[in-house]
Amino acid sequence: MSKTLIIALLTSIMIVTTAFGGSLDKSEDSKLLMLVNSEHMVDKDFDPDRVQFEDTYYYLREEAADALDRMLNDMEKDLGEAPMIISTYRSYEKQETLYNTNVDGAVAAGAGIADAIEATGRYIALPGASEHHTALAVDLSNDGSVEENFIETEAGVWLSEHCHEYGFIVRYPKEKEKYTGIGYEPWHIRYVGEPHSDIMYQNNWCLEEYIEYLKEDGSIIWKDGENIWGVYYVDSLECSYANIVDFSETNCGGYIVTTCRNRNSLLGKAQTLKGHTELMDKLISRIAA
Prior knowledge:
Layout lengths: L2 H14 L34 E2 L6 E2 L1 H18 L4 E4 L4 H17 L4 H9 L15 E5 L12 H9 L5 E5 L4 H4 L4 E7 L4 H8 L3 H11 L1 E6 L2 E8 L9 E6 L5 E8 H8 L5 H11 L3
Antiparallel strand pairs: 1-2, 3-4, 4-6, 5-6, 7-8, 8-10, 9-10
């Protein structure tokens, strides 16, 4: 039996044990999977909740700050030291200043305005198109500067291999510029939460690809230890799922709903569906973790 068929069968069984009807409460939208780029921007007055990161002057969404703290502590244990934070939340106005300063600097160095804008846009987003505005993005560095060879350092390698375990993704991967519109930035990570970070890592997807896949396919079933995650793309809030742990607008149409069930709980529910318990157990065991 192919993996595609296995997932399709498991999805159909999960849907039977899922409650439909009603609507999701927009006030509970986490916005963790918002796509923010030059084509899908946020308003100037977008003001995400954020907390101060430890005793620094950096600010992040609380869940991102907690995950970053755990990750940096583990990096320090593994490597002897962890990289430093050089950027987190940036307001629209701060992004505007940064963008204009870089364009003006390129022009002052002799570049034409069109070339200056193009060069700046490869690494610095337009105001309203920056992920730093979401308070979910972090730039890291070994020496306090943006390091072009960051991926070649111990910290860069560790980050690329492990950040997904903490809910982060390397937001602008190598050879993904055609999707992201931003050049390779191994130092820039973005919090999306689990299981999304694991799914993207295992499939080598950037956020644009992940959302597009969900739009086209409709759902992903993901096994993580004893947990079975259901990730569903919906066009509106007029739906309701059991066992919801999160839902987020995509900022490009629709929402992503995330559910989570314990494997044993799912098998228990399947007992009410005659003949499905054994099938469910077999399907679960064959989904890649």
